[in-house]
Amino acid sequence: MSDSKDDPRRRHSAKVVDGPGKSASRAMLRAVGFTDEDFHKPQVGIASTWSQVTPCNSHIGELADKACEGADAAGGKGVIFNTITISDGIANGTEGMKYSLVSREVIADSIETVAACEGFDGLVTLGGCDKNMPGCLMGMARLNRPSVFVYGGTIMPGKGHTDIVSVFEAMGAHSRGDMDLIELKQIEETAIPGPGSCGGMYTANTMASAIEALGMSLPGSSAQNAVSEEKREDCVRAGAAVLKLLEQDIKPSDIMTRAAFENAITVVIALGGSTNAVLHLIAMARTVGVALSLDDFTEIGKRVPVLADLRPSGHYMMSELVAIGGIQPLMKILLEAGLLQGDCLTVTGRTLAENLADVAPYPLDQSIIAPLSEPLKAESHLRILYGNLAPDGAVAKITGKEGTHFSGPARVFGSEEEAQQRINDGTVVSGDVVVIRYEGPRGGPGMREMLTPTSAIMGRGLGNEVALITDGRFSGGSHGFVVGHVTPEAFDGGPLALLEDGDLITIDAQDNTLVVDLSDAELARRRANWKQPAPRYTRGVLAKYARLVGSASEGALTDQD
């Protein structure tokens, strides 16, 4: 019979399998492959997000097996379990997209539930699609047991250097009449060539990079092709790394510090990453007990430039960054410039600076990462805006290619579907500020991404002529003059709820303001006549989410204090 004194690393599993009183537990585990020897080993839960739902996760079953092999070879006992995934790319533009951000909470809940119930001593979590990654990190942070995150890896480019955003923008071009059905179908058939997460610096690659910079994945994990020997080896090493973390008693709270989150923000900015990083990093930080706010992105953004020429606003894809060395050389550049804090601990058991010490520089002839002396943008592209339309803040992604100032009349819509219809039928015209409201965490509910309308705007040739603001979110694939996460959201009576067609809205990404040209008295008059709409859902997971979720400015968490 197992004895907890055999291995001090078994502080959780011993309670489940040790002694005569746990014979029933051992009997159940024998039926799933445990041997007498296994009961003496630290148990490593392998949280797999494998699913046929999306190409982002369709290969993760094999990767979970590799992580299990690594844990077993290092002297542990790997135990694979599954959690869910949804596909943003498939659900975008539909009612189903309301479940996307909700899935982040479900993933965190399920990982916490299984690992805490089964008594796993450590964890490997594997994620591919956008919400998998913060969901995995939040689950690991809640448990605070030695853990490593593994990114499933990026997809390869489609024919003609295409990807999923190419398809969305082709749909917009078709609605305008600039592309026939045959051309649209050709892009549809070839843009997604196999497994892996969406290929630009969209939310998946952004969050994978942020997590590596945070220190919660092994060096290089964020910049590997999904179908590659390097990614399989990454998984084996991750399984083994958990055993070393158990020996050293290094937990997520030791790694996910304030300084580590500042490093993650720095790398996200340098890469030109997704606005979703703001939402997710705040949520992850709050989960582990670290104070992080919207204003931290502004302060860090004042000193960190954008260096990566990556999609959606740039030219290159993640697989091309992988080919020249990934993000490790970029992190070394930032470290040597004093922009990263090198003393942060990582899942290797070493510091960030120690991990980067022997990293080779990028090839001299590469054009994906600009030198610090000639950045693509001297300050952050992630702009936190305040004003009478966003008293609690909003998040804009302004690369500079769109300009830094936009002023125009409001074209107000009460849902994504209504806005999409009016973009496609030509109601939205050059100069408009499209307003999509009642799509926030509570009002949607679920804070849908607006990839479909932003892609339609691009596809109709209005990318530099129309702005869009919303209390919803944006896909990492969205680009153009866009502002999301407007708080307070319309459903809670935020100023967005008071807008009318024709109101003059000004977005200023230099002064970081979002304002409507209305007096306080007029806003008060409109507020007196406003009534909160009835909830769109009264039962089920969306209704529960709407009752529990907090503000987007605080990470849209459901387990807030």
Commentary on this structure:
The chain has four domains: 1-36, no CATH class; 42-156 and 194-356, Response regulator (Rossmann fold); 157-193, no CATH class; 382-554, Glucose Oxidase, domain 1 (3-Layer(bba) Sandwich). Helices cover 38% and strands 12% of the residues. It contains 21 helices and twelve strands. The strands form two sheets. An eight-stranded mixed beta sheet has the order 5-6-10-9-8-7-11-12. The protein has a four-stranded parallel beta sheet with strand order 2-1-3-4, with helices on both faces. It is globular, with a radius of gyration of 24 Å. The mean pLDDT is 96.
What is the CATH first-level class name of the largest domain? Alpha Beta
The main pleated sheet reads as:
8 strands, mixed
What percentage of the residues does DSSP assign to strands (E)? 5-15%
Number of beta strands: 12
Uncertain stretches of 5 or more adjacent residues: none
CATH superfamily of the largest domain: Response regulator
The CATH architecture category of the largest domain equals: 3-Layer(aba) Sandwich
Question: Could you say which overall geometry the principal axes of the C-alpha atoms support?
Answer: globular
Mean pLDDT: 96
User: Structural class, from secondary structure content?
Assistant: alpha/beta
Structurally, how many domains make up the residues?
Answer: 4
List the strand order in the largest sheet. Answer: 5-6-10-9-8-7-11-12
- Straight-line distance between termini: 42 Å
CATH topology grouping of the largest domain: Rossmann fold
Our Rg estimate from Cα atoms comes to 24 Å
